[in-house]
Amino acid sequence: MKHGRASTGYWVAPQHRRRGYVSDALRTLSDWALSLDEVQRLELYVEPWNEGSWHAAEKCGFQREGLLRSWQLVGGGRKDMYMYSRIRSRRQTPAANPPKPMAPNSHAHTGWHYE
Hints:
Layout: E1 5-12, H1 21-34, E2 41-46, H2 51-59, E3 63-74, E4 77-87, E5 108-114
Parallel strand pairs: 1-2
Antiparallel strand pairs: 1-5, 2-4, 3-4
């Protein structure tokens, strides 16, 4: 990992939204990723209309950095995205017992990407 950055994202089926799945999954994934020596910064991109998603990001310690105009192709059109990040604090050290990943049958889908 050349730059110490990773990015993550998520999608939840409509019938499973507003139940805390994203917050639980994002917090677990973020804590684990920031416990790795290679990761100092996590990034997350959220469409501005998706208020539930930015509330979940902020609840998990991500801070909004700004609006990226025409940032990503989504559904055949260019979309603006809010950029969020969570930075490893100086007090944060790699976890002795990193969190276990969510069960494969969970209703939240998350992923991440190294840079």
